[in-house]
Design a protein that fits this description.
This is GDP-4-dehydro-6-deoxy-D-mannose reductase. With 312 residues, the chain is an alpha/beta fold. 41% of the residues lie in helices and 16% in strands.
Length: 312
Amino acid sequence: MRALITGISGFVGQYLEKRLLKESNMVFGTSRSQRKENNYLCLNLLCEQEIVHLLKNIRPSHIFHLAGMSNVKQSWTARKHVIEANTSATINLLEAVKKADPNIRVITIGSSEEYGYLGSNQTPISEDSMLQPINPYGVSKAAVSMLVKQYYKADHLNVIHLRPFNHIGPGQSLGFVTSDFAYQLALINSKKTENNQMKIGNLEAIRDFTDVRDIVEAYYQIAMYGKSGEIYNVCRGIGVNIQTILDILLSFSDIQVETVTDETKMRPSEVSILIGSNQKLLNHISWQPKIPLEKSLYDIYQFWLSKINQKL
């Protein structure tokens, strides 16, 4: 495989690069800023001609399109930006593939947020479920999934669209629930706060969490063995409420922690339950998530603990 990862310097991109290199694949990556590494390239995904030029130069066999805006909460205050970063950029990439080499296999990354409100009686959610996104981020990704179908049928591109549910792991930025909780707990246990309070949001929401290291394994297997033109959920298929996430993290601390509800952590609109079905994925490839939730959360907590202690 000669792979190109857009957004390689992001949370998932860094893990995917490591996974691909394990198989001695040639890996190139793009980001918005120039890096010293020879295989890291600066690319403006809003410039189609720039993408065409890059593809002709490096001649990838596979593209993993990870670049874009991924924070649901921030998408409410940056609606135009999220459409440009997620939808317009993907159109430019697919148009560039058409012109440079239509045989390149393109893996586009969507989100479980494409499904929106479906209700607890419609879980687990399959790939055939109705798309009813309720936030700008979900809208941008739903548009991508529909575009991928069109490019497959009308232009015969070798494209696959993935809908990962919540993925977590060490190195994920703040603004995501497991990182936010683990960071606050690490601050408390490093005695870097004046009190032992953790700010929390909605603890009743139920989500389907999978470790990023399992997620990138799925991406690799799908790139190798997935079926063109298909959409795959990537998830564990088990729902966990946010209270459980909090309880597991608190079990790592010997200090008594007080939790305080913070209204700023509440989203303007939030789906109460999102649990995916991974049956289609299991039927097509042999992937299975292997890392337990407790292990993921412990590693996230240790990541922040180490990062905070390095600054002491």
